[in-house]
Write a structure and sequence with these properties.
This protein is mostly helical and 284 residues long. The chain folds into two domains: 113 residues, Serine Threonine Protein Phosphatase 5, Tetratricopeptide repeat (Alpha Horseshoe), CATH 1.25.40; 90 residues, Alpha Horseshoe (Serine Threonine Protein Phosphatase 5, Tetratricopeptide repeat), CATH 1.25.40. It is 68% helix and 0% strand. The chain contains 13 helices and no strands. The longest helix has 28 residues. It is elongated. The protein starts with 5 loop residues before the first helix and ends in an 8-residue tail after the last helix.
Length: 284
């Protein structure tokens, strides 16, 4: 068996490096440095058609590059307007929410009366709706009510703006369903916070957060749970009369007990929190 010494190994590595550099140099010589730009004579239609083809094939990076080139070379006209719409979508699908939102907001500012402006508002809602979802969260069960609610609040505002401005939009029905889901998750987020305060014996803070749920999200399944939490917090804070009031309101509105957290109205997607939550573990 032949052993390679350290010096021999060093020589072999140096030979490989020089050979690689030499090959690169040869390629540099052979490759023309001033190759003509094949897109130099492209029309706006050429750019748009190629970009649209890349978008259809889900080649989002190429689509983005082509749409950006179209905008820079032909900033005016129908193709440029549609390119901004498609570019917003391409950024969104390529997991670039900041760029997508910036493009959408620019389009709204420049073309406030465009015939497809409702789609832009809808797309903004979708971008924020899915914002912050990592790779693992796309494929593993997670509790959405545990996320930072900032993006959800913005998404709710986007969808509500769409319904307010364009109640007859073809995106209205889907927006309504997403609003239901967003409010449900935001209410459950606040319920998490209220329970956090409860566990740390911050009873006043827990009561105030429960009141916020009841006032802000009255149609959600978090409300009866907030009432029970509020009653318990009042008892712990030695306010038996207020605890009795909260329990009486609960009994009047929910004589059959806690409703399930599943929201049958939301046909598109049941949140994982709605599927698995069995709340009211109030340090009993």
């Amino acid at each position: 068996m032949t052993f390679i010494t350290r010096i021999q190994l060093k020589r072999i590595l140096l030979t490989f490096v020089f050979a690689t550099v030499g090959a690169c140099s040869i390629v540099d010589v052979v490759k023309p440095k001033d190759a003509p730009d094949e897109k130099a004579n492209w029309s706006a239609a050429d750019f748009y058609n190629e970009a649209k083809s890349a978008l259809t094939d889900e080649n989002f990076i190429t689509a983005i590059e082509l749409y950006e080139s179209l905008e820079s070379r032909y900033p005016f006209g129908t193709y440029a307007q549609q390119a901004q719409i498609d570019l917003t979508y391409a950024y969104y699908k390529n997991d670039e929410p900041e760029s997508a939102l910036a493009t959408a907001n620019r389009f709204i500012r420049i073309h406030p009366r465009h015939e497809n402006i409702d789609y832009i508002y809808y797309l903004k809602g979708l971008i924020n709706f899915n914002r912050g979802i990592g790779f693992l969260e796309r494929y593993l069960p997670t509790d959405k009510s545990q996320r930072d609610p900032g993006a959800a609040v913005k998404s709710l505002d986007d969808f509500e703006t769409l319904l307010r401005r364009f109640p007859n939009s073809k995106y209205a029905a889907d927006s309504e369903q997403r609003i239901i889901a967003l409010k449900s998750n935001l209410a459950l987020y606040d319920l998490n916070v209220a329970n956090y305060y409860m566990k740390r014996k911050a009873y006043v803070a827990s009561i105030n957060r429960a009141k916020h749920i009841i006032e802000k999200y009255p149609q959600t399944t978090a409300v009866p749970r907030a009432l029970l939490l509020m009653a318990d917090a009042y008892r712990q804070a030695d306010m038996p009369d207020l605890a009795a009031d909260a329990e009486r309101i609960y009994q009047l509105n929910y004589p059959n007990g806690l409703p399930p957290l599943d929201n049958p109205k939301f046909a598109h997607e049941k949140t994982v929190s709605e599927k698995i939550w069995d709340y009211l573990e109030l340090d009993e």
